[in-house]
Amino acid sequence: MYLDTDVVLAVLKADDWLSSAVDLDAIDDPKTSVSTCIEVQYAMEGEWERERLTTVNESLTDEGIELVPLREPHIAAGGTLQRKYDRLNLFDAVHLGTADILDETLVSTDTLYPSIEEISTVDPVNSESQ
């Protein structure tokens, strides 16, 4: 399963609003893209010290989350989805495109994702497939 940034933050931040709902052991073959590391660093820049920001990739690996390389087909698939769905931002498109190419279910609380018909999603809060 492909983890969106909100789920990754729930794993990395004990005090995250979502941390109690995310059970990494219950997620089959958790993975995320290296782009998630960039998004986490961007999101946490004012809150985390530099050492923690620059070792997000290592922290994810330590948690048992596989980091998949970001490749051109992932970006192309994301671009196709972004052209079809106006509300997708860059990071959303990259996550969706990567999950699509990898044929993975995307784990996220993002309420936009269930409307993307090309991708299957699971919300860790209600644990129902979309």
Can you offer a commentary on this structure?
This protein has 130 residues and is mainly alpha-helical. It has a single domain (2-122), classed as 5'-nuclease (Rossmann fold, 3-Layer(aba) Sandwich). The chain has 6 helices and 5 strands. It has helices spanning 5-12, 34-44, 50-53, 56-62, 72-84, 90-102; strands at 2-3, 31-33, 66-68, 106-107, 121-122. The chain has a 3-stranded parallel beta sheet. The chain has a two-stranded parallel ribbon with strand order 2-3. The mean pLDDT is 94.
Detail the topology: elements first, then pairings.
Elements: E1 2-3, H1 5-12, E2 31-33, H2 34-44, H3 50-53, H4 56-62, E3 66-68, H5 72-84, H6 90-102, E4 106-107, E5 121-122
Parallel strand pairs: 1-4, 2-3, 4-5
List keywords for this structure.
about 10% strand; mainly alpha; about 45% helix; about 130 residues; 3-stranded parallel β-sheet; Rossmann fold; two-stranded parallel ribbon; globular
Average of pLDDT: 94
How much helical structure, as a percent, in the residues? 40-55%
Question: Can you tell me the CATH architecture?
Answer: 3-Layer(aba) Sandwich
- Tell me the structural class: mainly alpha
* Contiguous uncertain segments of 5+ residues: none
What order do the SSEs take from the amino end to the carboxyl end, as H and E? Answer: EHEHHHEHHEE
Cα gyration radius (Å): 14 Å
At the third CATH level, what is the topology name? Rossmann fold
Superfamily (CATH H level) name:
5'-nuclease
Looking across the biggest beta sheet, what order are the strands in?
1-4-5
Distance between the termini: 14 Å
- The CATH C-level name is Alpha Beta
Query: Can you tell me the number of structural domains?
Result: 1
Helix run count: 6
Q: Biggest sheet, open or closed, and with what strands and sense? A: 3 strands, parallel
